[in-house]
Amino acid sequence: MPQRRTHRTPFDRRARKAQKRTHWQAMGKIRRATPVLGGRFYTHNYMHGENGWIDGYFLGKKKPVFYNFSLQTVFYAYKELVESRAWDLSYALAPLELDLSIFERTVKDPVSGLYVTSPREPYRYPELNGMTRYEWTQAQYQRIADSQEIQVFEHWTLHRDYHSGIGLHATIDVPLLTVDAVNAFIDRFLLSETDFMVQTPRSFRFNEISHWGLEANSICDPWDWGKEATSDPGP
Fold first, then answer.
1. pLDDT tens-digit profile of 19-37?
2. What is the C-alpha to C-alpha distance for residues 178 and 183, in angstroms, rounded to an integer?
3. This prediction's pTM
């Protein structure tokens, strides 16, 4: 899940005028998105009902505080940890990276003067049963997931080094991120506005994760979702 941190002055230490200005900007987008998102939060990630992660912001109980959040489900967090474990294991068995990068295979063509990249079959590692690194890691997902050695916890933490608002990273125990699920999370968080973690871990079997692999979110303001749906009927 993307984490939006900066090295600029943290929100808590910015001038009061600057805090109010960014608060009003956040509130303006939240209000504009009310017909779609209900008036509690804003996100520029298109919410299609099956999101594993989104980011955005919502207002705190006291002005000019607002929270710049990165939100994911426990299922998405588990999948990411399983995939990371598989890649780590691949490098434990085959530590040398023998697949040349696209930059190392790009040379200047003497005739055209253009830079071209020569085609190349991915390297197959003897240590990885003759598979490419990508093939081997994907083949490990089910074994690692079904072993349930990976554990995730519902939790959220505050990050006060954000320049715009207060950072909030949250993993919540829902299958998918819907507008209702995000609003329910905001209600829970605003009860205390502090860090939180449950004591009982969650683990899942391979077949309980609906999608393995990259999960990209489309970028689109909520007030444009209808326009996008109208202009792009899909396959």
1. 999 999 999 999 999 999 9
2. 9
3. 0.84
